[in-house]
Each structure stands twice: as structure tokens, then as C-alpha cells.
Backbone:
């Protein structure tokens, strides 16, 4: 999939959790981002959402689950009273249990209140608690909201047998927890060692203890993109973070993000942001 032709939205990098509501516009263009998103559908006769290639006509109280890096859009829906919850992918990546749930449920994008009334009611109670805490003046609101996101995922997992038909309808990756754990170990290593001498796919496959071909297939199946695209994305995210910090030259930012040359740094940044790194820094500093 060519992500560059779609609009990209960045998560607020000072927080692991965000929540929003009250939008007047009924539609939102096709886009993607590295964080996960939970949408609680609002009232109204028409509520149409799209995730990847699938379009869903939903009712008030339904949930839309958008996992990190998935294409999605709001075709026509009540956004004034709907609820949007966003959680950092870095937060999810920090715990294997959450990664396991995301792995198992990645093909589940809708929880319908009419099909799963008890589950939907429990999830609605959790989102209501998130809203109450998020819009309070509590100093610990981010931690508490992240804890509720974890409870949301655990509640989802408790209803796995009930969701079995929806899960079977999607594409199964067919990888064991052990294999997924190895993949997560490798991705964690990369994120913490972007300046390492050898982050090639072959080297990472050796680190995971599996063949290069199997690693390649598994990586694309689980993440939705090939390894080189993902690696550039991680480097890009690191560079975006470093560009918001004063006192670093563009060359330092490129090297610390793992780019081997300034031209490759500029190329990837333009592909992802539609602007040069220096332009992005100047735009950010104006905020």
C-alpha cells in the first residue's frame, strides 16, 4: 500500500492518551497514523465509517477499532456527539500482553451494540470513565486513562469466544505467541538502537532466530508494511521528535535517527510529511 498519497496525522507526542469530541463536520478524509484509535459512534440516522477496504454503516453505541497504521475515514457520521479516543503505539508496544491482543484482534474493526450488547455496555462504561477523568483537572489523568485503555483491551479479550465469528471472518496471521514475541523483541531493539551498524532485515531475522524469508512474510503480515518501509517510519518518528528539540542541527537529527545520509533523510521526510525537515522544524516552532 502506498501510504504517501494519504494524509498522515501525528499523535500529540507529549501524551500517551488523547480524547476528542464535538466536531461539526460529518466527514473526515482517508488517513493513517502510528497510534491506535477507538471511536464510539454517536446518534443519527447515518453513521458510515471506512477502515482499510471495508465500509460500515453503524448505529449509536457501536464501536470502531482502528489499529495503528490502518487506513480509515469517516464517510458521513455524527461527529458532534461521537467520541474519539487515541492511544500511543509506544504505550502499547511497552507491554507484550497488549501486543498479543492487538495481534489477535487486528482484523476486528467493529463491535455492534445489537450483536454484543453486554460487551458494548461494558466498553461504554469504560469510555465514560475515560471522559470523566480526561476532562478533569487531575494531575494523574494520563496514567488513569491509559489504565482504562488496558482494561478496555482486557475486556475485549474476555469476550473472545463471543467474537469468534467476526475473528474467523478476517484474515488470520497464524503465528504463535512465541513468534510474535520474537518480532516484538526485534522491534523494541530497533527502536532503542537506531544508530546500530546493522539493522538489515537479514540481521534482524538472525536476532529473532528465524529465516529471512519467514521474517519478511511475518513482518508484513503483522505490521501491514514491508520491513524497510517500517524501519524508515520508525526513523522518521524519531527524527520528528528530535526536530522539536532546540539546539540540534539537521545533520545531528539525521544521524541520531539512523539515517545514513542527509539525502535519504530529506527524501523520507518529504515522502511522509510533504515538506523538508527544516520546514517542519520551522512550522513546529511557530506553534
Residues:
Amino acid at each position: 500500500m502506498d501510504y504517501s498519497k494519504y494524509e498522515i496525522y501525528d499523535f500529540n507526542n507529549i501524551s500517551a492518551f488523547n480524547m476528542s469530541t464535538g466536531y461539526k463536520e460529518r466527514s473526515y478524509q482517508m488517513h493513517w497514523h502510528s497510534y491506535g484509535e477507538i471511536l464510539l459512534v454517536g446518534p443519527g440516522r447515518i453513521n458510515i465509517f471506512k477502515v482499510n477496504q471495508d465500509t460500515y454503516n453503524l448505529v449509536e453505541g457501536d464501536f470502531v477499532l482502528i489499529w495503528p497504521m490502518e487506513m480509515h475515514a469517516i464517510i458521513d457520521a455524527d461527529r458532534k456527539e461521537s467520541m474519539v479516543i487515541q492511544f500511543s503505539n509506544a504505550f502499547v508496544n511497552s507491554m507484550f500482553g497488549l501486543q498479543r491482543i492487538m495481534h489477535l484482534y487486528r482484523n476486528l474493526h467493529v463491535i455492534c451494540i445489537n450483536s454484543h450488547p453486554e460487551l458494548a455496555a461494558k466498553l461504554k462504561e469504560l469510555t465514560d470513565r475515560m471522559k470523566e477523568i480526561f476532562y478533569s483537572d487531575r494531575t494523574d489523568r494520563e496514567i488513569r486513562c491509559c489504565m482504562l485503555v488496558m482494561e478496555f483491551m482486557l475486556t475485549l479479550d474476555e469476550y473472545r469466544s463471543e467474537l469468534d465469528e467476526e475473528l474467523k471472518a478476517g484474515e488470520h496471521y497464524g503465528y504463535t505467541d512465541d513468534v510474535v514475541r520474537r518480532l516484538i523483541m526485534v522491534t523494541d531493539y530497533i527502536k532503542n538502537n537506531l544508530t546500530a551498524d546493522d539493522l538489515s532485515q537479514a540481521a534482524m531475522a538472525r536476532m529473532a532466530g528465524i529465516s529471512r524469508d519467514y521474517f519478511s512474510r511475518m513482518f508484513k503480515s503483522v505490521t501491514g508494511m514491508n520491513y524497510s518501509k517500517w524501519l524508515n517510519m520508525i526513523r522518521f518518528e524519531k527524527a520528528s521528535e528530535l526536530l522539536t528539540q532546540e539546539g540540534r542541527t539537521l545533520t545531528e537529527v539525521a544521524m541520531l535517527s539512523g539515517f545514513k545520509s542527509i539525502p535519504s533523510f530529506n527524501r523520507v521526510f518529504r515522502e511522509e510529511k510533504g515538506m523538508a525537515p527544516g520546514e517542519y522544524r520551522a512550522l513546529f516552532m511557530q506553534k
Summary: The chain has twelve helices and ten strands.
